[in-house]
Design goal:
By secondary structure, the chain is of the alpha+beta class. Helix content is 39%, strand content 25%. Helix 1 packs parallel to helix 4, helix 1 runs parallel beside helix 9 and helix 9 runs antiparallel to helix 10. The longest helix has 27 residues. Bound molecules: flavin-adenine dinucleotide. The site of flavin-adenine dinucleotide has 36 residues, from strand 2, strand 6, strand 15 and helix 9.
Length: 412
Amino acid sequence: MGRDSYDAIVVGARCAGSPTAMLLARKGYRVLVVDRATFPSDTLSTHILHPPGVEAMQRWGLLERLVATGCPPIDTYAFDFGPFTLSGSPGTAAAPVAYCPRRTVLDKLLVDAASEAGAEVREGFTVKEILTEGDRVVGVRGRGSDGQTVDEDSRVVIGADGRFSSVAAAVRPEQYNEKPMLLCGYYSYWSGLPTDGRFEVYIRPDRGFAAAPTHDDLTLVVAGWPYSEFEANKNDIEGNYLRMFDLAPEFADRIRSANREARFAGTAVPNFFRRPFGPGWALVGDAGYNKDFITAQGIMDAFRDAELCSTALDQWFSDDRPYDEAMGEYQATRDEHVGPMFEFTCQLATLEPPPAELQQLLGAVHGNQAAMDGFARVNSGVTSPAEFFADENVERIFASANERDRSSASTG
Ligand SMILES: Cc1cc2nc3c(=O)[nH]c(=O)nc-3n(C[C@H](O)[C@H](O)[C@H](O)COP(=O)(O)OP(=O)(O)OC[C@H]3O[C@@H](n4cnc5c(N)ncnc54)[C@H](O)[C@@H]3O)c2cc1C
């Protein structure tokens, strides 16, 4: 094949890769997207899709398809801290609900959308080598399902190949804001455990678990403990998982009368940012920015990367902006957007009890519906933690709690 058979080759066809391929193909570019997996297939991940991710699917014209799969909507996030529960709406007027779609369903839908947009999709194709000329990436060498090794060339190779990215391993980008593994989490699917449209989160010292409704009338239940307990607990995942529920007796009663329908799956992940571009290469999704899954941001972050990166590449392909300038903006926008959430996520992932000041604030949030909605929206990625925890907002929440206390004292 001659040089630049494609404008872009995307390695990885799940949440980051397929939307990136789809958006570039919709702009008329020649795109090849490959994955060693075939679809539909599962991957090691729970799958809360917060409202901003749902909104992205709406923008792309794919939300109706997701809804048509029968995935139940989630209109309430409830954070049970033990003494009280903060229950609020996670969405916005434009995207009021979240979903928890099985990755078998979501990823297949995204791959099909890339293909429909005109991207060439090769499933069962493993990239073995990133091809370079000097310091520039010029293509990939890989093996297809027919066992043949082929070289493919393109103007840019986009690593959407997850946190163990082979594209990143080849180009060795700068890695920054690194934090070690903080939490290990394990999940399974349960029947007979309805949550009535709620994403339930239980926070206890050194323990956290959550339940969300998914396809086929099943409920996903994920539970985690600090990474420091990984070794001690790894031979009794089930026992540790089940014992955790005793910390929330009402939930323990409910799950005792439910049935587990799948094996446990789980892992721990490191936290890092990678420079997401260089000569002839780019990174999207977990390949470029990985964080603990406690706040379930990864899928919508991958969607956002797909939009930002495809926009930047379009500017470069169409000679509107130099490559470094357009892609530099992609990196800056990503980092600015996710920075406060990254810190919030890493703090939560320690599973340490909230500091006294935060406990006071959460107590003041309790019972204030606007503030509880605000807290739900921080967790859903709608509102930045920087905005919610800003002095002005905190003062407003405390003032409102004081007002409530005064009026209940005067009526009591
Ligand atoms: C336990 C756990 C729970 C999580 N829960 C949530 C949650 O509730 N909500 C949420 O939003 N996020 C969650 N996440 C994060 C989420 O899974 C990721 O952020 C998301 O999958 C990233 O998508 P991606 O497309 O970047 O990478 P991936 O989903 O990892 O996809 C990468 C793809 O690249 C392919 N690939 C890799 N190397 C090659 C190669 N050499 N050749 C060809 N193909 C290759 C792989 O086969 C794979 O299909 C969770 C993660 C974990 C680990």
